[in-house]
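Data deposition worksheet. Section B asks for the primary sequence of the deposited chain exactly as it was used as input, without tags or linkers unless they were present during the calculation. Section C holds the resulting structure in token form. Section D is free text for depositor observations; keep each observation to a single sentence. Incomplete worksheets are returned to the depositor.
Section A, Depositor: J.P.
Section B:
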Amino acid sequence: MMSMNKAIHAAFRRDLQRFIDALGRFPAGDRQRAEQLSTAWANFDEQLTHHHQGEHDIAWPALASVGVSHELLTQMDAEHDTMAEALTATRNALATLRSTASAEDAAAALTAMQELQRVTVLHLDHEEAAIEPVYLEKKDSAEIKAMGRQFAKVSPSQGGTFFAWALDGAGPEESAAITGTVPKPVLTIISGVFGRNYRKSVAPVWRS
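Section C:
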């Protein structure tokens, strides 16, 4: 059994490795491939930024209310700041690659992505070790349920894209954690209709 948070972390890990694999074999001069990777990056950038900002604004207050220490949450925020710096560097490197499609800029983007992977995975590992047990122990508490409702306050478009992305390559346990709190008819509509853009524009990037 895992929390939805841990399942989302698995999606970040999957995408980071997908980018590293793709950049490692980037065909120099292939502007179409550079554009594809830029499209996939825009989604990943938004998902990771939204996730760690949401943790600061929504998850940390909820976790503090069920006993997680201020010191630990402050450390988590410091790790978020390190991730944000690496995100900015990678964002800039991908923008350059999109404009040049050169082997040199693909190598620079790969280096930036590897650093982003390093700092992100360090944070995800730390968060899961320290906080995953709390999510599982307190999952039925009023505070954690209220936190979940806050995270769910997104537009249908955001929700559909999120579910399509998070489930793209998810294993059975991850899929169950992601979909377990959403009524099946609602999930079918949201991911089917509003996840269409992800499936059309981003998912094919990883099949190329």
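Section D:
The chain has a mean pLDDT of 95.
The two ends are 33 Å apart (CA to CA).
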